[in-house]
UniProtKB/TrEMBL annotation, chain A:
Its cofactor is FAD. InterPro entries: FAD-bd_oxidored_4_C (IPR004113), FAD-bd_PCMH (IPR016166), FAD-bd_PCMH-like_sf (IPR036318), FAD-bd_PCMH_sub2 (IPR016169), FAD-linked_Oxase-like_C (IPR016164), FAD-linked_OxidoTrans_Type4 (IPR051914), Oxid_FAD_bind_N (IPR006094), Vanillyl_alc_oxidase_C-sub2 (IPR016171). Keywords: FAD, Flavoprotein, Oxidoreductase. It comes from the Bacteria. It holds the Pfam family FAD_binding_4. This is Glycolate oxidase. Residues 51-229 form the FAD-binding PCMH-type domain. PROSITE patterns: FAD_PCMH.
Automatic annotation (TrEMBL), chain B:
One of its GO terms (molecular function) is catalytic activity. Residues 1-179 form the FAD-binding PCMH-type domain. It comes from Candidatus Filomicrobium marinum. Keywords: FAD, Flavoprotein. PROSITE patterns: FAD_PCMH. It comes from the Bacteria. This is FAD-linked oxidase. InterPro entries: FAD-bd_PCMH, FAD-bd_PCMH-like_sf, FAD-bd_PCMH_sub2, FAD-linked_Oxase-like_C, Oxid_FAD_bind_N.
Amino acid sequence: MTHLQMPTPDASVLGRSQQIIKDLTALAGAEAVIADEEGRRTFETDGLTAYRCMPLAVVLPTTTEEVSRILKYCHREGIKVVARGAGTSLCGGALPVEDAVVVGVSRMNRVLEIDYDNRFIRVETGITNLGISGAVSAEGFFYAPDPSSQLACTLAGNLGMNSGGAHCLKYGVTTNNVLGLKVVLMDGEVIELGGGHLDAEGYDLMGLMIGSEGQFGIVTEATVRILKAAEGARPMLMGFGSSEAAGACVAGIIGAGIVPVAMEFMDKPAIEVCEAFAKAGYPLDVEALLIIEVEGSDDEISEMLGRIQAIAEPFGPTSILISQSAEQSAKIWKGRKSAFGAIGRISDYYCMDGTIPLSRLPDVLRRIGEICEGHGLKVANIFHAGDGNLHPLILYDANDPSSSERAELAGADILRLCVEVGGCLTGEHGVGVEKRDLMNDQFSATDLTVQIRVKTVFDPKWLLNPGKVFPLNDTQQAKDVA
Amino acid sequence: MRPAAGWELQNMLLPMIDRQMSVEIVGSGSKRAIGRPFQAAAQLTTAAMQGIWLYEPTELVMSAQAGTPLAQVEATLASNGQMLSFEPIDLGPTTGGPRGTQTIGSIFASNSSGSRRITAGAARDNLLGIEAVNGRAELFHAGGRVMKNVTGVDLCRGLAGSWGTLAVLTAVTFKVLPWPEAAATLVYFGLPDDIGTEVMCAAMRLPYEVSGAVHLSQALARRLEHEGLRRQGRSITALRIENFRSSIGYRSEALKDALKVYGDPAVLDTTDSLSFWGELRHLSVMPYNRDTCLWRISTAPTAGPKVVAAIKRHMPAEAYYDWSGGLIWVEVPASADAGASDIRRAVAVNGGHATLIRAEPEVRASVEVFQPQAPAVEKLMRGLKDAFDPYRVLNPGRMYASF
């Protein structure tokens, strides 16, 4: 990948690194501080492995009070802080900088309170996304946002990126499922927002905090909504001879007043790779595949799938497969959820995350094909069709610098295309370092200035997660003003 | 001032900023009596900024100028079998203002959600994009027209519910959903508050997607416009199910069966359900009355009856529970402080927050209308005000006295 410009390290901080490590050890205990090279190496990158940087030190606190002490110290000493959950970010959101202390919440993963009557769970944010559902599944409840990395990713990271998933068409994304937060601000102050009730009071600080990519504070505890799972769920597969037909079918279903819990689209290259991996029964002789899932009782599911089939008829599906068993359903979803991994087995890939208006899908897919072809690369497309979130996976060779560079250029072109057709740069992965320099394509200078002022309210010294989200020029100007 | 476009609004604000003169921001003005009273040198309405400029039913999205009447938005949606799923509530009638005149911008500026909020999210959850002018007369955009968007700071959430104190929304883009094909409402009569809440919470623990759960005290049920329910003369606990037609019968029976220890409920059909839930949208049971004050309390559902019981130890109170018990509209006798200290104490013990929705201006000027905040939180809120409106031009003091 091309060279990534990051803020210039603060030489005075680097020069004090031994003292800083000593101080952190005094604040959080020796077992919480990782300062040796090998230990720090684990934290040098995240899910966007093209970029790496060794942090000054890593601290893995176990209490909010420890986080508060560490941030207060770093604030006083002018030391940058990079917050980290499981490090699964696909946009470099957890990429360290040389003069920063990584504060990881992975050891803070306890369930603190489960309240079924009020339908919430209060947890420490180092818990994994799936761990939350796991804690309440015995009572038939679940936590709705389901990013593909849910086995590993932490709630902390989900909060930082406002993560979505395949089922957010019906259940919303992270920000729609959070009731309360305990946040440590950069100066060490601990604040509580919301709680067990709906709609936090005053300005929606919680709404601003969620999706702030670790730049506003470190969330150590959260109260999130849990929902009673539907009586049952069943996916169906529909193959089409063209992406136009598949896209029109999705529009037809929604236009008829049906909002399935999930509608996933895959193009031919994606189908082939996923089928080879998961043996899910995906049809291989189609150009586009829809996975449509509905929920309810058996009768309700049958009626709904029947209606969807009738709606799909005029769009000429070439194959229809309705899951007949829980095992088959699991396989169908395994194919989709492991798509990235499956593609990773055949090639290096660069996963994009733009959102587009559904009506532009055929046009966008054609132009994505052209963009990648123009760069001499292949691409597979996976699309949350219901909500317009598109994941083109650009296949490239990481050992070939030219191929890497072309993948990056193609990715940027694709994201600009998403903006051009009325969409946005990122639907659920976040901006991080990856899309930082494309922000001017989506936002005017004023739009960004307004955002930057809000960031400055939460972190006046700009110490939290430096070099992310905002183009570096804007960041520097904001710091100068601050 | 009546700008017809964002740039015109900017031009109108500039001289006000130069002279540091404050401006009252309104849409149709139906919510003017909510919040702290404040002095403004001028009034600015978004009413001339009208029009729906994007509506894609198959993408579940609509964009409208902020001054577009809600009625127009809802009529346009209804003609395509769609709706605003969060059922915006109309606080006009209960605060002595007009009914049915709200603008779409004001719905998001006040984050006004109705009964379906428990399943469909609040107004803020359905807001996808905004265009707005802040107190520096800068026109800016945030969000967009797509359902999933995490690009940059989430200013849609940040501005929703800020009551025009940070920026004037000039256009909004929001999520819409299909109307359910059919609905039914199970109504239990004569349950006390705590048992009513128990029924609602039990219903929400079941997989039948109850999309409305309300409980009205006996006195309030007697104020209903719905004749059949009013005539019962007893408290009512109502649960709404919405889905396609054949599912409604199944879910009603399943719900009845699961809740049979609470008695045999009356069942309202789709038409009857529409009229019952429709009247709740303008708080029909809490009509404007100068002899009483109205509070809006948000708490955890099971804490609802406890909060109300604690208030009743100090003053007479009538409570309408929405959101499975988590949202309580409490009517108390008018008094110098509208019962603020006792009510806020009751809420503090049980968790949540209280907002004084209706009281005479002198009362709203002397008590905290919005929930007082911890110092560190207030500092952030003041910082936001400084960031968006450093010259204190937009609705200064409407939410908090000092900013």
